[in-house]
């Protein structure tokens, strides 16, 4: 605003000055001098106003974040210690598989990891809600109510990244759900993730579904629209990109909305509602933002979290793909080995086969899996998947 006003004022004064100077009437030289001085003074005043009232930093929302982008970067530059992995849990309330994670973190070095939990506002991890001490006092104080499939989900993710960026030791950021399990011990996962200078982000062209809303253009061009699993692992600079973004997020809030289920009470309005784009923000936001930031070259374009999809068509409103839940019976050593043996992923919309690599070495694709019931997680624990099984405590 100030720049525009300033430019207009200068243009106006120039106009006046030229007219006066070149006027054919017998202008007094004193009048000319007076005019010249007043122009000079006005310009001086405008200039000083401008330099003391620099525009606010619009690239950053101070209400949702506690650090400025430059500070994040400063922390990154200053750090040279043992790098940590930040484990970011997006929970509905408690962590039902905390006993398995407890054993996983027991077998780690405390200097090598940190934990952050986003749970429902007001929910407290204490002796009665979690037997594991690892999750006490690790909750975000500024957590929000999350609607599954809504943009509040990506806002919760951003809060987790933002909190974790405050610790300069955090160099990798793994987003996990409350039904995720680790398939390996800590040191295996640590070495795998740290060895790679890239983020692990499942990201592909979304050709089949029509979730892109043309109203997003030109903020989000169609060719940058991506789809992929919500369960991502980021390097620090990419976590900063997520936290610093405001523009793409607001386009998502406006135009990427979940289609509401058919509600008989709404009658004919349903026809209109069902025509609306059905967009699940958490399956598009990070992928699209990173594509728009020209960072796809810094990605392993796959997820580290395994999910089995099951199409159920039992109820009309729930029609679609749902993750299959592992229970005690189907989480045995044979099934777990089958997941661990997967070494490539095929992306049918791009005819792309992704051979799984970490820092160019061929590696198993998956380090984590969902969705696991407590029984299934119990079986992993007793089979020693995350380390030495110590079932005597449980
Ligand atoms: C744990 O937190 C819950 C919810 O805030 C509270 O109701 C409960 O009394 C707490 N339990 C203990 C042992 O502090
Ligand atoms: C962790 O797992 C890897 C691979 O499964 C194994 O080679 C290694 O010995 C394990 N390390 C510890 C400390 O248990
Ligand atoms: C902890 O980090 C150090 C330094 O990166 C590494 O040498 C060590 O193996 C890590 N410990 C575990 C249990 O992964
Ligand atoms: C798939 O979902 C249906 C309905 O929800 C369920 O009955 C069935 O057991 C599921 N199949 C598998 C393999 O999970």
TrEMBL record:
Keyword Heme: no
Transmembrane segments: 33-52
Broad class of where this protein is predominantly found: membrane
Pfam families per the UniProt record, alphabetical: Branch (PF02485)
UniProt KW keywords: Glycoprotein, Glycosyltransferase, Membrane, Transferase, Transmembrane, Transmembrane helix
GO molecular function, one term: glycosyltransferase activity
Topological type in the membrane: Single-pass type II membrane protein
Gene Ontology CC: membrane
Localization, UniProt: Membrane
PANTHER family named in the record: CORE-2/I-BRANCHING BETA-1,6-N-ACETYLGLUCOSAMINYLTRANSFERASE FAMILY PROTEIN-RELATED, OS01G0695200 PROTEIN
Stated name of the protein: Core-2/I-branching beta-1,6-N-acetylglucosaminyltransferase family protein
Biological source species: Quercus lobata (Valley oak)
Lineage per the UniProt record: Eukaryota, Viridiplantae, Streptophyta, Embryophyta, Tracheophyta
């Amino acid at each position: 605003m100030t720049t525009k006003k300033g430019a207009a004022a200068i243009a106006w004064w120039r106009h006046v000055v030229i007219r006066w100077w070149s006027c054919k009437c017998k202008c007094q030289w004193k009048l000319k001098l007076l005019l010249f001085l007043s122009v000079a003074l006005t310009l001086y005043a405008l200039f000083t106003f401008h330099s003391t009232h620099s525009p606010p930093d619009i690239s950053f929302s101070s209400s949702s974040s506690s650090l400025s982008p430059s500070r994040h970067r400063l922390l990154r530059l200053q750090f040279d210690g043992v790098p940590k992995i930040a484990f970011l849990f997006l929970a509905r309330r408690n962590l039902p598989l905390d006993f398995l994670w407890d054993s996983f973190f027991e077998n780690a070095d405390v200097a090598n990891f940190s934990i952050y939990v986003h749970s429902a506002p007001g929910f407290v991890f204490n002796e009665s809600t979690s037997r594991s001490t690892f999750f006490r006092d690790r909750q975000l104080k500024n957590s929000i109510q999350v609607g599954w499939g809504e943009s509040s989900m990506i806002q919760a993710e951003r809060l987790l990244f933002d909190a974790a960026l405050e610790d300069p030791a955090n160099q990798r950021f793994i987003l996990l759900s409350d039904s995720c399990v680790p398939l390996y011990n800590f040191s295996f996962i640590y070495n795998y993730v740290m060895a790679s200078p890239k983020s692990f982000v499942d990201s592909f062209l979304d050709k089949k579904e029509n979730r892109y809303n043309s109203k997003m253009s030109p903020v989000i061009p169609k060719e940058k629209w991506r789809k992929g699993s919500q369960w991502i692992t980021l390097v620090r600079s990419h976590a900063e990109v997520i936290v610093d973004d405001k523009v793409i997020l607001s386009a998502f809030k406006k135009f990427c909305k979940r289609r509401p289920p058919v509600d008989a009470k709404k009658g004919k309005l349903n026809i209109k509602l069902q025509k609306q784009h059905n967009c699940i923000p958490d399956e598009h936001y990070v992928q699209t933002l990173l594509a728009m930031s020209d960072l796809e070259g810094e990605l392993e374009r796959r997820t580290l979290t395994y999910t089995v999809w099951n199409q159920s068509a039992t109820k009309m409103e729930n029609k679609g793909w749902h993750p299959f839940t592992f229970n005690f019976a189907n989480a045995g050593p044979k099934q777990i080995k089958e997941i661990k043996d997967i070494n490539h992923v095929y992306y049918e919309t791009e005819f792309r086969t992704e051979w799984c690599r970490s820092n160019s070495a061929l590696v198993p694709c998956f380090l984590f899996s969902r969705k696991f019931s407590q029984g299934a997680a119990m079986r992993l624990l007793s089979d020693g998947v995350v380390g030495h099984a110590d079932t005597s405590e449980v």
